[in-house]
Amino acid sequence: MAFKMIPEEEGYYAKLERERKKKLKELSKQHIEQAEREKATALHLMKCPKCGMNLFEMDFKGIKIDECSSCHGIWLDSGELGALVKTEKRRLSRIFGIFVNQSQ
Questions:
Q1: What are the Cα distances from residue 4, in Å, to 9, 15, 18, 52, 83?
Q2: Is the pTM of this model over 0.90?
Q3: In Å, what is the CA distance from 28 to each residue of 46, 71, 88, 98?
Q4: Dihedral sign, CA of 49, 71, 91, 96?
């Protein structure tokens, strides 16, 4: 005995199948994008933007900065410039504070 669906059931299952395919397509797209990001990161991570050689991390006044092993360029990550400015601002105000106190 063959099973035959009524038109409403066919429409319902066709809709479910379209939604399933749409979700699979979106997941596939997300996986491809993630793989591309990881590949780009692997190619460029710790490489000098100027000459492409390796960067090495060094500690400068308590802040980790990157220096190129070839062209000796200095590269800062997000937030590191602000941290350096704050550090230097404190040091300069202490130095200037000495002169202000002596002149009074």
A1: 10, 18, 21, 65, 71
A2: no
A3: 29, 41, 49, 64
A4: negative
- Name the β-bridge partners of 21: none
C-alpha 84/C-alpha 76 separation (Å) is: 10
The parent domain of residue 82 ranges over: 47-104
| pLDDT tens track for 56-76 | 999 988 888 999 999 999 998
Dist CA 11 CA 98 (whole Å): 83
**55 and 25 in a common domain:** no
- Based on the structure, what is the number of domains in the chain? 2
pLDDT tens for each residue of 79-95: 888 888 888 777 777 77
Stated length of the chain: 104
